[in-house]
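Can't attach files on this board, so I'm pasting raw text. These are the components:
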Amino acid sequence: MAHLCLFSLLVLSMVLKTQALTPTHHLTTTDVARLQAVLSQPFTDLKSAYYSVVGLSKLGILVADADETCQFIKSNLDPSSVESLFYAAEASQALSGCEIPVSNDTRDLLLATVSEDSTASQIHQSVSALSSLGLPLASQEVVSALKARISKEDNVLTIILALQTASRLSQQAELGDILEEIEDLAARLDDLSGVYLQFEEGLEATALFVSAAYALSDHVDMEPPLKEDQVIQLVNSIFSKKSWDSLSEAFSVASAAESLSNNRFHVPVIVSAQGPAAISHSQPFLRLQVTDVLCQPLSSASVLVESASTSTSKSAILSQAPFTLREEVFELNFMASQPASGYYQFSVAIAGDSRFVANHVELKVKVSTRVAINNMDLSVVDKDQSIGPKTTRVEYPTKAKASFMADSHQNFAMTFQLVDETTGVELTPHQTFVRLHNQKTGQEVVFVAEPDSKNLYKFELDTTERKTEFDSISGTYALYLMMGDATLENPILWNVADVVLKFLDEETPSTIQAKTLYTPKPEIQHLFREPEKKPPTVVSNAFTALVLSPFLLLLILWFKLGANISNFTLSPCTILFHIGHAAMLGLMYVYWTHLNMFQTMKYLAIIGSLTFLAGNRMLAQKAVKRLEGK
Amino acid sequence: MSNSVISVISRFLEEYASSTPNKLKVIDAYLLYIMMTGALQFLYCLLVGTFPFNSFLSGFISCVGSFILAVCLRIQINPQNKGEFLSISPERAFADFQFAHTVLHLVVINFIG
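---
Top answer:
Structure tokens for the assembled complex are below.
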């Protein structure tokens, strides 16, 4: 049972490790400089002075003219306002040698603000002012006031301010309930696609939450209930914005950055390659910068390559190799392990401090090399192989002296090898093209040269087979070899030779027109549907008469049989029936000529029902008569 | 052989002329008319061609339908069949004939184009 638990834990930890997040957004040195510039703007009032002075102190920068700033603070201080006292007290605390004079009234005002009726921000400001000015305060009262405030206003900013306030109280106070608020607040963060974690109230709230949570955790020396992935997601959210709308936003980002680089529990590590992560013989060192979120280098770290393997195979070229620290940059001579050119997957671990978060990084490193062309052989081979091929060897980058002739009986062939310049290993770059350029007409045809199983490149040109590409235009073509790849440092365009091609049944070269892709096409004439052949009208008329003729026969027969209408009673229903019946037949004719089915049904319903009723009556009368007659 | 056929036919015609009531003879004349009309339409189609096909079909179906309805009427009216059609009086048969013809004509006119 214990073995099973251990095994599952091991598997779980391995799975979690492979899925650990690394920061996708972080501040670069230019961003930190920009943040500093925003905070160094000349201040207009006490509030902006507070943001600037305290913000810069969080970035570790001292204000230039401390005395002038101190004077400014003292002159703008309004001792009857708690907010003003707060700004002044905090700012003067950040400056060295700046003391705000405190009177008894000030102290009483600040102490009186600590109650359940003040807002959380007022409580925060008075407690911070009292603490910065070195005045005594009753921590327990503050805690109860905060708790009452939280229960009345359950929004995010209130709780953040409560956390900030609690970090200024004495450690003996009962801060447990307030500490639990960190976990509740963390649950309210919105997870955006697994990358960002932020409050819907915005960046400022998220940044203030981070600084407040870590301030309180450090104060009570208890690890905050934030998981590593959550910390990284918070880093992504806070540092994704590189220009800040307001001074307060810049201030919140600066305090979050300071608390993330300086707290006792979690220090996110930012690893970035210096320049592109590419190595070659001229540049054999892979250089990495390992910093905290404020772009300060972590000199105490030790960086280790856990494994380096090619993207295709999983065999490790390098394992457990340390980086050496040189001038705050970690470097490793990867070319010393003589890797073949291509892409490598590096798994780097940063150790040295148990607080490091996101200290396993995956990097993709490119190793590039220079290519050399060996054994470039050009030959003209007879198709029936009666005459042996004449092979000419050409050395890069010279051009073959004589030009080659190939007509319909011959093939032109080219073979060559591509090797790595230093190691001599055969290479297969992504792009190896052979381009034939007709200097007179400007026409060019490009073919692909392909390697065989022994990595020997072959190109054959059969003039009869390929004459459509050339439009059967004979002439002198300059042959170029083009080669390129992402891992090649020296892409090649080499005019190898001139080839004279002769095609049979050639068109006159003067009528070369660009392929008529974009000229108007011939107009399509629409053919309307031909009406079908009708028989001559005479025939139709004759047959119409013929078809109607049996009617006459019918009348004659009926007359002979003695059919009559002597039983025709002139009762109204009879007349109505006959009229209705005639109307129905007339409706049929009108349907044929004018109406559609819906209209016909409508009229038919009306006429039909009348006819039916009348007919019913009529037939009933007839039936009665018949039964009477019997 | 042919003699007996001729004698059968002449016998049949005699019997027909004498024993069939007049009403039925009227209907029979009507049936003959319908049949001839249909046959002539078919002849036209064979000789001249099937254009327009829908009109030919419509006309032909009209003849066939009318023939069938008239035969039904004849059967139902025939006093010799009274035993089989106890619930259907001749008037009722005629009303059915009329209604069915209305539907037939509606369809035929729809299809004639």
